[in-house]
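User: Here's a chain of 450 residues. Predict its fold as tokens.
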Amino acid sequence: MGCFVLNRRTMIKLLPFSLILVILFHGATHGQEEQLPLVDSLGIIDTIIVAGNTKTEAYVILNEMTLKPGSVASHQAIEFDRNRIYSLGLFTRVDIDYDTLEGQRFLFVDVSERWYLIPVPIFGFRDGDPKKPYYGIGVLHSNVAGRNQKLFVSAVLGHNPSYSLFFSDPLFDRENSLYWSASTSYSRVRNRSVIEAAKSGRFDELHFDVGGTLGKRLTLYQTLGISLGYHIVTFTDNEPGRTVSGTGRDSYVYSSLSYLYDSRDLREYAANGFFMSLYLSKPGFGEADVNFTRFGADLRKYIPLPLDLTLATRAHGTIVSGGVVPTYSRVYFGYGERIRGYFKNVFEGENMLGGTVELRYPILKARTINVSMIPLPREFSVWRFGISLALFGDTGVTWFRGERLARGDFASGYGGGIHFLLPYGIVVRTEYGFNEFRRGEFIFDVRTSI
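Assistant: Prediction complete.
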């Protein structure tokens, strides 16, 4: 009989996943759509009045709220709905108050709208690498016709240049709660495969994509969607094995089915709720040499604790089956997904499994600040800030089909830092992390948190 020894390094690798799975199982087996506990209940709501929405249709706000006429209002439910409305990305300020006037009980929702048509300067470093700068311009209309429709056009130069057009309507059929989106893009992408680069050097991939999604909002928290599109991939310097077809050009139809459950209070930096994203994608249907299937899942749970602490956990993964997976469809840690402690290390494979656990404490709770003393348009004069301390543990692994996984294959890290919640939903993370060999690194990252 084999012997399994839990030494310090093994415990560091396995502890994050153990905590994550226990907490996520609890979240998945306890429904989130039941009414929030009536802590400090205020009374029944007769009427909801929305104000301040000069451009936004009132139903966009009301559809995001758990409180309805006939519901019992509480401080906790009001705060939850306030964060849900803010997460729409349409407002710089959201205030909700309960009051009684002439025997009628009102819920007043007062908002300040953002500037919706925004020229967006684009600048940054791909994958956080100063050697990979990119720059460009985009134009975003985040609230077309006041219905939360999004229209975005962009042109990006520098590292991985691209051109894209995207439009979405989150509720084009209100009666049946249907949404749709469409996009087209062209990009030149520096190959990410370290395995292929080691064999034949660096090369660029040329991607053209057009596609659309039709979906249904099943409930306040649940959506179901189906996507269909067409994708073409070529290379600046083709070598055998880079494309599945062997011609230097892969072109194929793809489709995917997705399910989303999202009861988070504040999407960019949640403190309460459950998130689950499941998808099944199928590149190729026999009309092309590309023909495989990919399944993916992303589960996140946020638990408020005493002393204003929040426990945030995430488990995510993706697995493939079927035909050959080309180099451009492999998955990685070290680019979009990272393992802190191995922040700049690249791990490559066909399949991926990862997990994160964070303990957060707000030293400045998220709040809105009026900066009217600065000569700015009204839509830019209300800012939202927050600062939190965080401890974290990350773990992850990638592998190819046919390989057997062992506990030593997981890369893990732990550490702590400061997170800054900035206006317009930007989250800046400054952290210091260690891997299981106690090698440390400074981390600066600008993106939404788990």
